[in-house]
Amino acid sequence: MAADALSGSDAPPVESTAVPVASQRWALLGLLCAVLLNVHHTAAWCLPVAMGGAAWRLWAAQQPSRLMARALRIGVAVVLTLAVLASFRTLNGLDAGASLLVAMAALKLMETQSARDWYIVLGAALFLLLAACLAAQALWLTPFYAAVLWLLCTALYALGAGAAVPAPGLLLRTAARSLLLALPLAIVLFLFFPRLPGALWTVPREDEAVTGLGEQMSPGSISRLTESDEPALRARFDGPLPARELRYWRGPVLHNFDGYSWSRTHADLGEPPRLAFFGRGYRYEVTLEPNMHGVLIALDMPRGVPEERPTAFPTFDYQLLDAKSMNNTISYRLESYPEHRSAAALDAAVRELDLALPRGRNPRSLELAQNLRLAAKDERSYVEAVLDYLRRGGFSYTLTPPRLSRNSIDDLLFNTHEGFCGHYASAFAMLMRAGGIPAHVVTGYLGGDWNRFGNYLLVRQANAHAWTEVWLDGLGWVRVDPTAVVAPDRIDSNLDDVLAAAGGSRRRASHPPWIAAAALAWQAANAWWQDQFVDFNLSKQLNLLGALGLKDRDVEALVVLLAIGGTFWLSLLAWRTRRAAAARPHDALSAAWRTLERALRRRASARAPHEGPIAYSGRIASEHPELAAVLLPLARRYAQLRYGPECSAAELERFRRGVRLFTARLPR
Amino acid sequence: MRSSEPSRYPFKPRARLERAFSAWARSRQGEDCAPLTLGSRRIYILPTRTGVAAAVLLFIMFLAGVNYENSLALLLCFLLGGFALVTMYECHGTLSGLEITSAHAGAAFANGHGELMLGFQNASSAARRSLRLRITEATPKSFDLAPHSACMVRVRYRARSRGRQRIDRVQLSSDAPLGLFRAWTWLHLPLEALIYPAPVRLRALPPPVGRPQRSERERRLGGEEEWAWLRPFRDSDPPRRVAWKAYARGAPLMVAHYDAPAGARRELGLRPLRDLPLESALSQLADWVLECERRGESYALELPGRSIPTGHGVAQRRHCLEALALYEA
To answer: Does the predicted model carry a pTM greater than 0.90?
Structure first.
C-alpha cells in the first residue's frame, strides 16, 4: 500500500490555472478605473503606466504564456520606484504611496498568470480605491467610488467563476446584489463601531495650497481671495441670525506693519484681558474648512473656548488659536456677543506693539496724521476726522486696484485713491498709530449667505474682509471698519451687489432663480454630507447614542447595538440563502403538484422517494378511502399532463383549480 | 489534494487532523444513502488561504481608515467586510440543498482505476458552481450545476487489491463564488467496489476443447460465415463481429449472432495453473477471460466451489471476473 501511495504515478495533475480573457478584462477595467480615481493626487505618469501595463497584458493574453523577462521586470521596478522618488522626494505619504501602488500593480500585470496573481492585482485596485477615499471625500465623487467598487466586486466574481465566466449582465447583477446585501451591515458598523478619539499614529501630510486667510496681509491679498467661491465656514445658529452688519467673523489679527504689509506677531503677551459682555448673545456651531492660519474663526466677539477643541486657547488679542493642525474640516460650538467692552486697562507691551511704525516709511501719511491729530481735540474726534478724510477724499472701492509702491499708504492716500478693504484697513490702522492710538488690523470674513435648504449661513473665501480695532480709553478695543465709510453698501449687502453698483467687473453672471435654488440645494447636500458623514466621529457617535436614549453607557451600548444589528443582518442573510437554496419547482405544473403533496404530507403521509404520483396517490387512497374519489383522478391527470405530449395553459389552469379545491376540502 | 501528496515528513499533522475531523463528522452524521439532500448541519466552512490574505488586507485598509479618521474609507472597509460575509453565505448555499440522487462504485482491476458515479440534482433556481468531488488518493473532479439540472459525475478512484473495496467517504466541496471560503461536506455513502484481479499474461491460452459442430445450413453457406442470424449493432459489440460484408452490400450495421458456440470453446480453470501462487493464477485467469472476449470465443470458468457455464459477452465476462474477484481458497 505504501508503495502504491508513494509511486506517484497517480499524483493529481495541476489543475489548469489559466484565467479566461473575459476575467482578465474585468480585472483590468477595475484596475484602470481605480487608477483613474487617483489621478488627481498621484504622479502624472501613473495613468499612462497603468494603461500601458493593461494594454501589454491584453496583447500578451493572445500569445501563449508570454511573460516579461525577469531581469527586465526588476529593471522596470527600479525605474518606477525612482520615478516615484523623483516626483515626491519620498516613498512615504498618501500620494507617493498611491503612485507606488499604481506602479507596482502595472508591473504585476507583466507577470500575471495564475488566478492568485489576478487576486493580487484586484487587491491593489481595492487599495487604490481606498487611497482615493483617503484623498478626497467629496459628495460628488461618491457615485464614482461606488461604481468602481461595483466593478471590482464584479471582477472578483468573474475571477472566482473559473473557466466558465458568466455573462457580463449576470456578473454585474450578482455583484450588485451582494453589495446591496452588505450595505445594511456596513451602515450598522459605520454608526455603531466604536470610533477612536484620534489617530493611531501620525501620518505625513502633504501641505496643500489652501486658499484663505494667512500669516500676513499685503495690498491685494484680500482682493485675490475674493475671487474664490470656495467655502470658508458654515455656521448654524441656535436662535435667530445676527443682523447683516454684525456678521464680522474674526480671524487672524495682524500687528506688525513694515510700511507695505501687515503680519501676525509671535510674541506671547499672556492671557486676554477680561471683557464685559452685554446685550444679546448668539450660540452657534461652526464647521470650518481646512486652513493655514490655525485660528478658530468666530463671530466677533467669542466668549470662552469651545469644548470640542481641548487644544484651543485664546490669545491676548482675542484670537482662538488651536494647537492642533486643521488639515480636516472641524466643527465647534461657540457663543458670541457683538456688544462688549474691555474691563481692564491696556497692557503696556500691547500698547507698544500696536503703536509701532516703521521708520522713514510713508512720510506724507505721517504728516497728514500729525496735522489731523493736532486739529482734533481728543482721540475720538481724531478717529472721526480720519474717517471723514477717507469719506471725503474721493476714495473709491474696487476689486482691481492699481499696484502700490513700497510706501503703500502714501501711494493710496495721495496717488491712486482706489483700494479694497485691505487697503483702507491698512491705511486707517497706520494713521491711528501715527496719531498715537493703538490699532491693529483684524482679518476675517464679513457677511455670509443663508442656505434655506440646509439652515446654515455659508461664509465663502469671497467674503474675506479686513477691518481695524483701535484702543480708546474708557471704551477699550473698538471695531472701526474704514471700508464702511468708503463703500457703505459693502457692510450690509453682498460684495457682488456693491461691485455691480460701482460698475466693477465680476465673473458671476446673474442666473435664473431655479439654478440658484439648485445650487443652494446642492450646497446644502454637501454640507449635510460633510457634517453627518465625513465628520462622523466619536462625539457624533455619542450624540447619536444620546438621541437613542443611551447616553451614559457609551461603549457597552455600542457593543450591544452592534450585536443586535449584526444578528439581524446575519439572520436576514441566512433566511435569504436558505430560500435561494431551497428546491423550487420551475414550472407551474410541478408547483401545483407540490402544493398537493404538501397538503397530503400534513394530513396523510409523505411521498416516499421511490413513489411516483400514481403509486403515491394509490397508497394514500388505500389508507384514506374517502380521498380516493378526487385524488386518484387528479394524480392521473397530473401524470398525463406531466408525461403526455403537451400541456396547454387552459388544462394547466383546470388542474390547478382542481388542486385548490381538493386541498381546501381536505379534512383537518 | 494536498493530503495525497507524498509528504517528506513522517508525521503529517494536517492529514491527521483531517482524518480525526472526518471521523468525528462521521460519528456525528451517521451513514448516508442516496437519494439525500444536503442539510446545512453537515456543511463545514473555513476561509481559504486567499480568504485569510483578503482578511489581512481588509484589516490593513481598516487601520488606514481609522488612522486617517476617514469616514468614507471606513465605510468602504465595512462594505467590503459585509461583501465577504455575503459570499461566505453564498459559498455555504452552493452545497446546502444539493441533492445526491445516486451513488455507484464501478468495478476495477486491482492496481488500476475504477470510477465512482454520483448523480447530483440542483432543484434551486441558482447555479451551483465550482463543485469539487474528491476521494482520498485520487484526482479531484470539478463540475458546475446549472439551475434546475441534474448530472452524473464520474470520479476515478484507485483500486487496491482483489476483492471488495469500500470507499469510506467522498468529500464534496466548493469555493464558489470568490474562492475566499471553502465549504465542504463528507458523504458516507454505501460505496463498495468489486476489484478484479489484475490481468497478467503468464501462460498462453489453453487450447479449445470440443469439435466445432456445423449445421447443414452453415455447411451450405460455407466455412467463413458461421453466424446463425443477424441482429442490429449495439455500441458494446466488438467490431470484429460486425457483418462487414453485409454492410458493404448496403445493409445497416449488423452483428452476427450465434445460436450456439460456433468455433472454439475454452474451459478455463485453476487446474493448469496449480504451480502458480493463487493470486498469480487468478490474475492469469482474468487475463484469459479478457483474451477470450477479445477473440469473441466462448468460454467456461471452473473454480473450486463455483462454476460458470459456457458463454460469452459482457454478462459472461462480468460473471467470471466477479467470481475471480471474490474467490477465496
So the answer is: no
